[in-house]
Specification:
mainly alpha, about 85% helix, about 0% strand
Length: about 80
């Protein structure tokens, strides 16, 4: 039982270290030892992430524009009733 806990803790520590390394690379730190293939893969990952971010940003903008248009229409309706 105790060995399982130690093994799980060790496994989680390795996973955390791997995730921290990935994070550093995504932020552009610690790239010196990376081979060209690693850099190309990292570049593709960043491009996909940037694409998803832009898609989400555009979706949020469209939703905000829709809500603002609804408000404008509502106020115009109220104005013409007066």
């Amino acid at each position: 039982m105790q060995d399982d806990v130690k093994e799980d803790a060790h496994s989680l520590a390795k996973k955390i270290e791997s995730l921290e390394d990935s994070k550093r690379k995504l932020l552009g730190h610690g790239l010196e030892p990376c081979a060209i293939d690693d850099l190309l893969l990292l570049e593709k990952q960043l491009e996909r992430s940037l694409s998803r971010i832009r898609e989400r940003k555009n979706q949020v903008f469209k939703e905000q524009i829709k809500k603002l248009k609804e408000k404008v229409n509502h106020f115009a309706y109220i104005y013409f009733l007066i």
